[in-house]
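Format notes (please read before filing issues)

Several people have asked whether sequences and structure tokens are stored in separate files. They are not. Every record keeps both together, in the order shown below: the sequence lines, then the token lines. Line labels are part of the format and must not be stripped during preprocessing.
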Amino acid sequence: MPTNVVTELAVKSHNSPDEKRRPDKTEVDVVNLGDYTVGRFTFEPGWRWSDCIKPVVHTESCQVNHIGYCVSGALSVETTDGNSINISAGDSYTIPPGHDAWVDGDQAFVGIEFVSAAEFAKPPQGSA
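Then the structure lines:
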């Protein structure tokens, strides 16, 4: 198993992110810390990957790997092969490529993502 090495002391706030992405019902606030990218994902009630992100990335399902921690709210995830999980506040999670997801209930989902932040909700290179 590879070992991650942190080589510098750093702190950044997601309230003043290095990058913001704002697709429909979506807020992605990205900070870069040395060789690492961390994202705060906020999905509003009614958010669904296939409705809000698919039009941006142009794939049939989400093709991003996710490792994260749910701060608040709830999210359901279903893979293209029919497996599903429910994520709620206090849960850490992994999600492989090939899935759809949606917010459960009337509270926004807020998650901190450690693997997908650099690429989630970004248009494909070369598209406008």
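For reference, the curators noted about this record: The first helix runs from residue 49 to 52. The chain has a mean pLDDT of 95.
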